[in-house]
Every structure is written in structure tokens, then in C-alpha cells.
């Protein structure tokens, strides 16, 4: 139960800081998370990547 309380408090804190909780990314394989972060990084660095992922 302590872990669930910690997780809820962490999510609430991150949301207060402007982050968005993505339920679709909860309890997914690590490869899905890695793919998501790769997309985020590619978007954030598009100006440096010149169209290359």
C-alpha cells in the first residue's frame, strides 16, 4: 500500500509541475516506453537531426 501512495503522490506532484500522466503508457513493456521516449527526443531535437531519426 505504501508504494501505491508514493506513486499517487509522485503523479500528483509531476502533474502540478506541468507533466501529463499517460495511462496508456502504464504497465507496458519497456520497449514501448523506449519507443515513446525516442519519439519525444526526435521531436525535441528535430532541428538538429535534419530529418534523420
Tertiary shape: elongated
- The rounded Rg comes to 15 Å
- Write down the overall mean pLDDT: 91
Strand composition percent? under 5%
State the major sheet: none
Low-confidence stretches: none
How much helical structure, as a percent, in the residues?
A: 55-70%
Cα distance, first to last residue?
A: 41 Å
Overall SS class: mainly alpha
Task: Describe it.
The protein has 53 residues and is an all-alpha fold. The protein has a domain at 20-53. 64% of the residues lie in helices and 0% in strands. The termini are far apart. 0% of the residues are buried. The mean pLDDT is 91.
Summarize the structure in short.
With 53 residues, the chain is an all-alpha fold. The chain has three helices and no strands.
Question: Which helices and strands occur, and which strands form pairs?
Answer:
Elements: H1 2-16, H2 30-44, H3 46-49
Which features would summarize this protein structure in a list?
single chain, 53 residues, mainly alpha, elongated
Amino acid at each position: 500500500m505504501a508504494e501505491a501512495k508514493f506513486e499517487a503522490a509522485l503523479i500528483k506532484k509531476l502533474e502540478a509541475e506541468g507533466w501529463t500522466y499517460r495511462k496508456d503508457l502504464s504497465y507496458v513493456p519497456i520497449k514501448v516506453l523506449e519507443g515513446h521516449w525516442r519519439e519525444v527526443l526526435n521531436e525535441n531535437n528535430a532541428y538538429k537531426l535534419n530529418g534523420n531519426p
